[in-house]
Specification:
GO molecular function, one term: hydrolase activity
Distance between the termini: 43 Å
Protein name: Alpha/beta hydrolase
Pfam families: Abhydrolase_1
CATH superfamily of the largest domain: Alpha/Beta hydrolase fold, catalytic domain
Radius of gyration: 20 Å
Largest sheet: 8 strands, mixed
Keywords: Hydrolase
Number of domains: 2
Helix content: 25-40%
Number of helices: 16
Length: 390
């Protein structure tokens, strides 16, 4: 399966689409800006779910105008990047966080760079970027995480050699939460559990309202445009607390994601006024996912729940991220609070050079699309400070 680059008519001036071949088993589709002159410092942008490299289109010219070579790949499982196996029953290891980090290393190397000036990860791109900085601080000496806090790698028990060993017990917390959510009235299911299931790809690839309408509702309900987004910190990872979140995070059991978001489809006036995602731009997403389906993108939710792949991450047990770092969220994005305690662990333990937590006022989940100018200003200010610190 091979694909051509995106047509220039869908891209802002100065942003081009091309394929880079032979990277960790992939042919990677990238968008890039600031590519005209050699020697520019590299900024690498890693998207999340169900985004694409295209999601960075508004931000890329801002960073390029500031002197950077800006590159955003379609990540493994997404868009026009090929070389990954598509299906529910294929091996998950290629989609592991460590292998996705290797994809980033391979791309930087192929571009002829020894290091980046900054790596930025949004949503699922956030933990991938975090493991890039954790494993290769020489190549990724400056880190920005967006929407998904990084609580640190899973750890081995510490200082236990002289204690009586405790009986080994499997971590059943996810199963216990699923059981407790199912016992609520009405029964609920966490969105990650749903997205990791076998049926999710078919549900989302062939929604009854059509792919364009489903994606419009999904992008809208997670944005700052939807008035129901009033995120706050959850007191504990309990079913009762999770049930306080919107239904697109904690779904009614038995309902699909297209059925869940359909009631929140924006009005015709709201669609017309949505400058950050026009219908023509949304057509790019509908076309890409109409061709590939969602399974490659959904593999990440299965990776998060896979005991063997999580055990790999214990290689970094006790390690902190020691490069200049920044977290950016939206004041109307539940992503910052979706994992209770993660933000506190990130700020208190996981990062030793965290420059701060910046919350973009009025933005929902899609900060790089909703408020690219504000995001660009935050990134450029951080890059200057991180450069001086380095």
């Amino acid at each position: 399966m091979t694909h051509s680059p995106l047509g220039s008519a869908t891209l802002p001036d100065g942003v081009r689409s091309r394929l880079v071949h032979g990277l960790n088993g992939l042919d990677v589709h990238i968008l890039e800006a600031g590519h005209e002159g050699p020697g520019r410092p590299l900024v690498l942008l890693l998207h999340g779910f169900p985004d694409l490299a295209y999601g960075w289109r508004h931000l890329m010219p801002i960073l390029a105008d500031a002197g950077y070579h800006v590159v955003a790949p379609d990540q493994r499982g997404y868009g026009r990047t090929t070389g990954w196996e598509n299906g529910y029953d294929v091996p998950l290891e290629p989609f592991s966080l460590l292998n996705m980090a290797r994809d980033a290393v391979a791309l930087v190397s192929a571009l002829g760079c020894r290091r980046t000036a900054m790596i930025v990860g949004h949503d699922i791109g956030s933990p991938i970027a975090a493991y890039c900085a954790l494993a290769r601080p020489d190549m990724f000496p400056s880190l920005v995480l967006m929407s998904a806090p990084f609580p640190g790698p899973p750890a081995f028990p510490f200082d236990t050699a002289d204690r009586e060993p405790l009986p080994a017990r499997p971590d059943n917390s996810a199963r216990a939460l699923a059981t407790a959510l199912a016992a609520l009235d009405p029964p609920r299911v966490h969105y990650q559990h749903y997205l990791g299931g076998r049926q999710a790809n078919a549900d989302m690839s062939h929604p009854p309202q059509g792919l364009h309408a489903f994606l419009r509702a999904f992008f809208h309900v997670k944005s700052g445009d939807w008035p129901g987004n009033r995120p706050h910190q959850l007191a504990a990872p309990t079913a009762a607390e999770f049930a306080r979140m919107p239904s697109y995070y904690v779904m009614e059991r038995g309902r699909t994601m297209p059925e869940t978001v359909a009631p929140f489809h924006p009005s015709a006036d709201e669609v017309r006024d949505c400058a950050w995602l026009t219908d023509r731009e949304l057509d790019v997403y509908a076309t890409e996912y109409g061709r590939t389906g969602f399974q490659g993108a959904l593999q990440a939710y299965r990776v998060f729940a896979d005991p063997a792949l999580n055990a790999q991450l214990r290689l970094f047990s006790g390690r902190t991220i020691d490069v200049p770092s920044l977290f950016i969220g939206g004041t109307r994005d539940w992503g910052t609070h979706a994992a209770p305690g993660a933000l506190d662990r990130m700020t208190g333990q996981a990062m030793t050079k965290l420059a701060g937590v910046e919350m973009v006022d009025g933005s929902g989940h899609w900060i790089q699309q909703e408020q690219p100018a504000r995001l660009g200003a935050l990134l450029l200010d951080f890059a200057r400070r991180a450069g001086r610190a380095g």
